């Protein structure tokens, strides 16, 4: 959910200000959201087909009926039971077991969030709502507000099939990966029709909030690059570990800790990438318009490098300070990629596109390097895009020249003039009478 942790939602039921922009041949289902792990205004592409490779919950019975035996068993457990995942889902892979995750009961999370009170809401969206809670740092037992460790509790909407699917994907993927640039999933709850996830609390909220929310202090170019590099590391890890395709890379899913370290969140759409020598996987079209790669939108073919396209869009948002899709912009500028990409490699045009909030802190050299990388990430053919490992290497190079040189031409002239005057002063200096000159020793000549 995009708006989370450090930034509270003022109106929890309102749709985001950015309107949906439907692509030519695709109907979009707008999921108004301000939630942790789901963007502000998620636009899901309608398709009810179920992927054969995904773990499925049969729809033939109600959620309550499916979970009743599990719920009865859970009532016997304590509020902080651990280890086993009590909510098996029918699949060819068998029972899901995540020994490193904490099993919370609904009662425990209810207590940790003060009965899910409205003033603890951090965000909301298609999956449900996210609440701020407090638990003991060691046992994860619920504690009073302000005591122990803050956590984010994502609570699904009852009877939400989409919520159940995303709950499963998060547990399957985020639950087994530990990386400095991935949000840590601490535990889960699955009782009757209640599906909840518990995450570490990210104090600074989402990148989206910092880029586009009114009242936020503008991020410096150095901080933006730091965030981009962290996000790139997280994405590169996913691509190189098990070829996991994140499928929903966007500014609202990049969360920030107090030091602006970036962590990827919301693995509800994550999918294992191609195997056995295949270049792509064919899947239902689902994601966020404006960030989804063109080949995926057009054909349903999902490549590992489809994520690279989304990364390029976010990097372009960082450089320009504009949203991926914004219908409030003039005609021809609604879609950021369509508007900006043709001019990215034209230095005069590039200067005009740089976020005004950056002022003069960004050198044209660094801006052009970033623009070149963005241009490559946004190639229409996924084969022509760089890998995330290559993207990371370029970003680190750009980071080395991120600051604009402090010495302007005027300063250089002043320094040269000062040097010339010092040279002239030293040349005419009397060897008999020295005053703070030469070797820095003050002396007075005495008559012989």
From TrEMBL:
Molecular function in Gene Ontology: ATP binding; protein serine/threonine kinase activity
Organism classification: Eukaryota, Viridiplantae, Streptophyta, Embryophyta, Tracheophyta
Top-rank EC class of the record's enzyme: transferase
Listed GO CC annotations: plasma membrane
UniProt protein name: non-specific serine/threonine protein kinase
Biased composition, class Basic residues, residue ranges: 420-432
Family designation: Belongs to the protein kinase superfamily. Ser/Thr protein kinase family.
Function: May be involved in plant defense signaling.
Domain of life of the organism encoding this protein: Eukaryota
Ligand binding (ATP): 155
CDD domains reported for this sequence: STKc_IRAK
């Amino acid at each position: 959910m995009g708006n989370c942790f450090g930034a509270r939602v003022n109106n929890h039921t309102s749709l985001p200000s950015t309107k949906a922009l439907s692509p030519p041949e695709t109907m979009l289902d707008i999921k108004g959201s301000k939630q942790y792990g789901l963007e502000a205004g998620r636009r899901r592409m309608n398709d009810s087909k179920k992927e054969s490779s995904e773990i499925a919950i049969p729809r033939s019975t109600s959620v309550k009926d499916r979970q009743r035996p599990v719920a009865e068993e859970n009532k016997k457990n304590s509020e902080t039971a651990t280890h086993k995942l009590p909510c098996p889902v029918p699949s060819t892979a068998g029972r899901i077991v995540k020994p490193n995750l904490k099993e919370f009961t609904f009662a425990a999370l209810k207590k940790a969030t003060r009965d899910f009170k409205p003033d603890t809401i951090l965000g909301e969206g298609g999956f449900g709502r996210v609440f701020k809670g407090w638990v003991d740092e060691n046992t994860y037992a619920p504690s009073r507000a302000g005591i122990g460790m803050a956590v984010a509790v994502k609570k699904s909407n009852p009877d939400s099939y989409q919520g159940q699917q995303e709950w499963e994907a998060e547990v399957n993927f985020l639950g087994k990966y530990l990386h400095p640039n991935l949000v840590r999933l601490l535990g889960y709850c699955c009782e009757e029709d209640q599906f909840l996830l518990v995450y570490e609390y990210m104090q600074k909220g989402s990148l989206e909030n910092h880029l586009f929310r009114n009242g936020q202090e503008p991020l410096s170019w150095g901080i933006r690059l730091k965030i981009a590099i962290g996000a790139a590391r997280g994405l590169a890890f996913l691509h190189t570990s098990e070829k996991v395709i994140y499928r929903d890379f966007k500014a609202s899913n990049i969360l920030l800790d107090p030091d602006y370290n970036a962590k990827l969140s919301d693995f509800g759409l994550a999918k294992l990438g191609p195997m056995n020598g295949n270049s792509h996987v064919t899947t239902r079209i689902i994601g966020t318009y404006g960030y989804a790669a063109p080949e995926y939108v057009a054909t349903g073919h999902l490549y590992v490098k489809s994520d690279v396209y989304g990364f390029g869009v976010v990097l372009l948002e960082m450089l320009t300070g504009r949203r991926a899709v914004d219908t409030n912009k003039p005609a021809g500028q609604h879609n950021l990629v369509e508007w900006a990409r043709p001019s990215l490699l034209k230095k005069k045009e590039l200067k005009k596109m740089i976020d005004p909030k950056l002022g003069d802190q960004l050198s044209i050299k660094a801006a052009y390097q970033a623009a070149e990388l963005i241009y490559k990430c946004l190639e229409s053919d996924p084969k022509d895009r760089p890998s995330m490992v290559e993207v990371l290497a370029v970003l680190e190079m750009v980071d080395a020249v991120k600051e604009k040189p402090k010495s302007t031409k005027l300063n250089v002239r002043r320094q040269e003039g000062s040097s010339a005057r010092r040279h002239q002063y030293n040349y005419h200096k009397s060897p008999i009478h020295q005053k703070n000159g030469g070797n820095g020793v003050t002396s007075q000549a005495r008559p012989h």
